[in-house]
Amino acid sequence: MAAFPFSVMLQVAYPEMDFANRWCWHQFGPAHGECQQYQSEYPACRQTGPHIHSGKWATYWHEKTDYNFGFHEWYFASESDRDRFLEFVPELNWGENYPK
């Protein structure tokens, strides 16, 4: 991941991951690589079928630790984008599909 040297790893639930990925799309544009948005609870991409994007951030699901929970990592091309994501982390939640 030489192109994305700045990373953040969090233990999240699937809805939190999808919520964070949508936030990243709105802030930084599409994620780099094969588009997985068709699986998202909060999809940001409207394209259908297999396709890829060229972007300045990427993600990787490392390991499931419990039902619908696990370690997910976000990678950023720039330190400033990583820092913006870190500022967003306290606001990370399950999103509007899960009202409190």
Our Rg estimate from Cα atoms comes to: 13 Å
End-to-end Cα distance: 37 Å
Low-pLDDT windows of residues: none
Total number of helices: 2
Overall helicity: 25-40%
Based on secondary structure, the structural category is alpha+beta
Total DSSP E strands? 5
String of helices and strands:
EHEEEEH
Strand content: 25-35%
Layout of helices and strands:
Elements: E1 6-13, H1 14-28, E2 33-34, E3 52-53, E4 57-66, E5 69-76, H2 79-88
Antiparallel strand pairs: 1-5, 2-3, 4-5
Structure description:
With 100 residues, the chain is α+β, with helices and mostly antiparallel strands. The protein has one domain. 25% of the residues lie in helices and 30% in strands. The strands form 2 sheets. It has a 3-stranded antiparallel sheet with strand order 1-5-4. A two-stranded antiparallel ribbon has the order 2-3. It is globular, with a radius of gyration of 13 Å.
